[in-house]
Amino acid sequence: MRVILSILVLIVICLGIVSSLHRIPFGNPETKIGKYCINKGREETGAANIVTSVVVNYRGFDTLGEVTILFLAAIGLGSILTSMSKWSQRKTEPASLILKTGCRFLLPLILLFGAYIFIHGHLSPGGGFQGGAIIASAFLLIYLTFHGKGMNETGSKVTESSSGLIFILLGLIGLAVGNHYFLSNFLPKGQLNDLFSAGIIPLIYIAIGLKVGSELAKVIYNLMEKS
Amino acid sequence: MEFLADYIYYIGAFGLIIIGLLIVLVKHNLIKVIIGLSILDTGINLFLISVGYLKNGTAPIFSRTDLEPGNMVDPVPQALVLTAIVIGVAILALALSLAVKLYKHYGTLDLRKIKEQRW
User: Fold this and answer.
1) Residue A112 clears pLDDT 90, i.e. is over it
2) Is B11 within 8 Å of chain A by CB?
3) Domain spans in chain A, listed from the N-terminal domain onward
4) Domains of chain B and any CATH numbers
5) Do B76 and A34 touch (CB under 8 A)?
6) What is the ipTM of this complex?
């Protein structure tokens, strides 16, 4: 009975979607804001990657909110999983030689690649969120290889909160110094396609990368150690 | 056939959304419901990306000087999806931790057997 009812509901939703979407032509977006960002983004923010200039500059305040959502989810997961008594220790076999050697060899390279992705976020595809996810995958490799070792919890807390503070402090300095709005770009824009360009965008992306990396590593740590 | 070729990305994205909704509505296992939510999330991300698609367009990155601004896809939905993916991962992890907690409390993940969860 419930299956039939839900299929009926879905058919109604499908009809609504089709009747509203078949008038929208596919393949030529005509949003004015997208055109504006593409045409003016280089002069206004100095970043070659327009997606980055939208994420960090035009929608910087929104990104701060999204980082906060990520922080809240990590905190909630930690508090849910730590409030229960520690489960009986699972039997774990030591990892094989291949995994251990591969981890020792690949770990610095993965960390370096993650750092490259978020430092070059304003020049090439990538940015803080992607680089943070790559850094968290390096921590996942550590947890799979050396059970129970890995992240220093105090260190991850310090990294996470200090990088969040850097984000907010940069915004507040922009409020005081630059164009007098939150997260305004007060540093010199520099040459397009240069590593040291685009003002505060690389600094904010480094902060976001460290924050996302330590938060996702903490999520992995909580899920692997405490559940 | 013309319609199908023009709208194949919308059809795929909404197919994923409908499949996800169907799983959420029909399945009784909590893990399967969470998998359905994840599929729904992916469908919504694909739909947002395909809204900004431009035929034969390039990525909105001025890595070379000969790239034309008029031939670039819409950057705003890409920026939205960029953050939405990471948020989706965090929400998925939170939902899974709640499922772990429920399993330890009730000893089952079947939604019909959890008393306060009946629907």
Assistant:
1) yes
2) no
3) 2-225
4) 2-55+68-114 (1.10.287.3510)
5) yes
6) 0.79
